[in-house]
Structures are given as structure tokens and as C-alpha cells.
Amino acid sequence: MKQDHTQLPFTTRVLKEQSDPSDLLPASYHFYEQVISGRRRRRVADPSQNVAAFLDTELSLQQLESIDKHLWLAGAKRPPTQLHLQVAIGRNIVLADRIDLHLLWSGDGKLFVKPLSRFLLSPDFWQTHLTCHDYCSCSDRVGSVLSMESQPAMESRYPLPPPNTTCKERLRKVARGFLYTYACLISTESDFSIAIEKRLLPRETDDSPIKWAQWQRLVREIIAQHGSSKVHPRFVRAELRLSRINVIHRTKQFLFSEAYFGGWNNYSSFFRDNLAWIAAITAYLVLILTAMQVGLATERLQANTAFQQASYAFTLLAILGPVCMVSLVALRALIELIKDLRVIFRQEKKHVNTSTA
């Protein structure tokens, strides 16, 4: 069922309105563009020059959308846990200003949280940039009008959307879901104090924090307007386990693809992590072979053909298995080295060409 695309998630103004709407936006934003080689190149731009392009980057969940059918392996469908409980169970709140990292947690106790953007607390910004035209394709009205009138009759009777106007339903669902996570994270004054201390909430121009009473009114409005069909599917789930997201991402893409986030930053950590699980598997194989040696020393199993064959198979596995696994790790390291060298040589060549121009 389509939702009312013109209804704002809140009307409470928790921050003073800015005289210049561009003051709601960050100073700059980073985005990636595809280059001829197939790799991505990072760029920096002014968000006020193209707000639509900025929002496409700021509210992008493209990487998670590619594995959305498997997110059940990484997190349950439930509201996010309050901040004070996150701290109580030993999680360290780490600021990560990327919405695709919001509420991902790692095995070392980190919980990545995206600070709440200033522009998402402005009803005027929502009205201008996150609501659709009255007769956008995401509106309930379109279906009812088309069922009763012909297209020419509808066009003559109702206003048409401005040229080059795109539907904002996807961005709106991401923004609504993101707001809802904050309504869940900051439930009590204890949560509010943690959020203020961690700088998770935007501040006034004089650096004074949002008032608790204003936050109460805002959260109650957000909860009253909330519905699972109004938010992006990612925000139906609470915290997601980063290690499982990395496994799903690598399995879904390719065995040698990069991790979703938090890959190896140097070759020493790469070999340490990979050789650790190879050593664990090898130790387990040694334990099995030791038990088989004891079995072969008994008269009952010496004449058992099946046990003899199993012992032979495990012996070969113990010899060849670690060799093959170490070879795969070395191959992966070689592939990464070649990729790094290509980037270095390309950048060096570009720098030389720029200097001589």
C-alpha cells in the first residue's frame, strides 16, 4: 500500500531556523565516481551546489541493498537498544558519518553511530527536498485518479510535476528510518546525556545543545508517524553484526572481493588474521590424526578397512590442506599487491603529466 508522500514525520522545531538554508548542510561531502579503468575515484563537492546529488550520497544504502535478502543473518527485526544499555553491555560508541555504517557493531566492542544531521531536523528542509509532488507515482492519489479518469483528463485537471522532478520516496524512507533509530536510541534523559556528550545531536549556532523538552516532543511525533512500510527495510532491523555483513558481502560478491568495512589496512594484519584460522584448522587436524594413531595401535582397528581408508584420507588432508590454504592466502596477497601497484603507478603517471603540462 502506498503512503502519504506529503506528510512530514514531525513539525517540532528543535533548532532555530537558519537565515540561509545552505547552513543546514555540511561544509563539503565526499562521493565516488566511476573511472574508465572500472575503479572508483573519490571526489569532494559543495553540497549547496547540488542538494539532490548530495542527498543521493548522504542517504545511500546501496551496498546494504545488494545483500538485503541476507540481512537476517546479521541482525533481528526489533527496535535499536537505548544508548545507556549499549554502554552497559560494553560497547564503545564510535562516530561514523556514513549511513551505511549506522548501528553496525564489531567484535572488538565498537558500535558505529552516524550523528544526526542538522538538515534532517528541519521541517522546511523536509518539505523542500524530501517530499514529492502531489501527483508523484508514489502517491495514493495517482492510482485513484487513473482508475476514474483518462490520462489527458487528469493532466488537464491536476497540476503536473515540475520538469526533471524525480520521486523521492527512497530517500524519504531512508531518512524516516534513520530518524526512528534515534527515537529508539535516545529514550531517557540518560540516553540524551550520552548523545550530547558524544556529539551525536546537532547544536545551535552558539554551540548550545538541544533541550530535553524539545527532544521529547520530537520523538513522540516521530513514533506517532512511524510505520514499517514508511521506512527503508534496513531500519526494520536493529544493530547489525559487522563480521557477518563482511562475510555476506564477500560471499555475495566474490571470494577475493573487499570487505564491506574494516578490511585489512596492511599486509601484516592480513597475514596475521588469515594464518590464525589456518593454524586453528591445522591444530584440529593434528588432534584427529593423533586420535587415529591411537586407534591404529589397537588390534580391533588395525584390521578395519574403513578406518584405514579414513586415516589415509585425513593424512593427505593434513599434509595438503594447510599448503593449499597458505597458497590461497599468498595468492590473495599477491592480487592485492598488484592492485595497489597499479593505483600507485597510475597516480604517479598522472602527477608527472600534470607537472609537465
UniProtKB/TrEMBL annotation:
Superkingdom: Eukaryota
Keywords: Membrane, Transmembrane, Transmembrane helix
InterPro entries, sorted: DUF6601
Record-annotated membrane-spanning stretches: 275-298, 310-335
Keyword Kinase: no
UniProt-listed Pfam families: DUF6601 (PF20246)
Protein name: Subtilisin-like serine protease
The species this protein was found in: Hypocrea jecorina (strain ATCC 56765 / BCRC 32924 / NRRL 11460 / Rut C-30)
Lineage: Eukaryota, Fungi, Dikarya, Ascomycota, Pezizomycotina
